[in-house]
Design goal:
Elements (H helix, E strand, L loop, with lengths): L1 E5 L10 E5 L9 E11 L1 H8 L15 E8 L11 E4 L2 E3 L5 H4 L10 E2 L11 E5 L4 E2 L6 H21 L6 E5 L3 H12 L3 E5 L3 H9 L4 E3 L6 E6 L7 H6 L1 E9 L12 H5 L4 E4 L5 H13 L6 E5 L3 H9 L6 E5 L2
Parallel strand pairs: 10-11, 10-13, 11-12, 13-14, 14-15, 16-17
Antiparallel strand pairs: 1-2, 3-4, 3-8, 3-17, 4-5, 5-9, 6-7
Amino acid sequence: MTAWRVTRPGPMASHPLETARVPVPRPAADELLVRISVCGVCRTDLHVAEGDLPVHRPGVTPGHEVVGEVAGLGADVTGFETGDRVGIAWLRHTCGTCRFCERGRENLCPRSRYTGWDADGGYAEFAVVPAAYALALPTGYTDDELAPLLCAGLIGYHALTRAEVPEHGRLGIYGFGGSAHLTAQVAIARGATVHVVTRSAEARELALALGAASAGDAPPEPLDSAILFAPVGTLVPPALAALDRGGTLAIAGIHLSDVPPLNYQRHLFQERQVRSVTANTRAGAREFLGFAGTHHLSVSTVPYALADADRALTDLAADRVTGAAVLRVG
């Protein structure tokens, strides 16, 4: 099969990915073999390719927003059949016994492992996944539309939870790409007023079309909550300064450039707070996908062929993607 591999992590201009012909993986006893139809292109893939995240598996195949059908079953797998449509997301293993797993916070498990970082992911024709971490998918969406839900949607949903938006609250969203455009819709469906901060004219247009109250350089009113999707640390101080008393800023990325010094009175006093966001739990994933099944989300995608995965990541790095990029594999 054809697969992309991160051979020399570095800037996209240095061509860190290469294609290769590799054997179709064999599922272990507890795994599914999935024939991939679509894989979303996530900013985390960019961090893996460019070396912002340390190498966990040399030559890894990135991609963790995988939609496909079951093509093979490990000997111990139950509950799935060949031909079932399933999703593969970022989280692929937790220990199940540590204090975090026992508290229902498996995303903090010290022995957690991740698709497209610790194990080969979806920039390929086939992938394997532990059956316990494969996700059932809602109906009413195309495969292109489903793929971004499996990380952009999941992490945005978790970030929204971490931001603790009060009922009918005012939410600021900084950056408006694949994750943010889904999160905004969930927040609006729950009654929040959403203000989007982005420099992109196309993203502003999309935000307003999806129901945002404003889209510009700064929110027009104090915010109860905010989510930072752009991996830009210099946005943290203005995002905090825009919060009302008791407001919460959730930082949704796995990587963030350095944050400048904060002024306590301006940025944190009056019980403002900053929260990070670390992956998602399977329970949270099922909750979000259930929400997406009953509240149809408008998913804006930009399709690329599998052969153009490096171009898709280059476009993402240059902020040339409005919505979510997806690789059409099958």
